[in-house]
Task: structure prediction
Amino acid sequence: MLFDLKGKRKRLVQVVYVMLAVLFGGGLVLFGVGGNVSGGLIDAFRGGGDGGTTSAFTDIVQRAERRAARNPDDPEAQIAVVRAQFNLASSTEGSDAETGALTDRGQQAIIEVTQAWDRYEKLKPKKIDASGAAFAALAFGALQDYDKAVKVQGQSVKARPSANGYFQLADFAYRAGDVKKGDAAAKEAVRRSPADQRNTVRSLIKDLKKQGAQIAKAVKEAEKARKKAGAGGGEPGTNFGPLPGQGQQGTGQAAP
Result:
């Protein structure tokens, strides 16, 4: 659970501010969240643990890519690539063990997560893979493509509703500048939280909304600057930094 009443308030705030950073993008740069704080959504997805060796993550990616190449019309093969590439990004091969900053390979892995997800969607699966969608949403967030992150996270919570999922959806929506959708998701996150935690969640969402507004403004200004410079808009900006939950505490592999 994201909201752990048994922990101290300080620990709760640490976890949530890691969540606010989402992944490796603007949040970490704007608000200075370090890479040495563990916990939060990433750890929940990875399942913690000591992780694997560098070669193991690479091997898993290669096997997943070969499977997808052999079965281009199989949605599950594309989801396997999503998981494998995300795992690699959060491994010591994908991020620096000391700083938590993504390596070049880790940055590429995140891009490949989004590409695999796009291929998965084009196959029109009968049922969306909730955990795969959550990985992909985080990857789109890392690329500061918050509109797409909102869409994909929305698919995740529709397939598997949870307080954490709606909390993350609210975060992405506020970052995308969609306050109405953010408020709706925040309300659902509160509703799905245990009754004795709801006041705490409301307080955290208040901070989430404020931080999201600042990020949305920064992203909008950056987009204007790119257009003014003659970039013509192009793709959303990419601003990679530390991976939340990483740093000196090591890595873990995502849950299947």
Summary: Residues 1-53, 242-256 have pLDDT under 50 and may be disordered. The first helix runs from residue 9 to 21. The chain is about 65% helix and 0% strand.
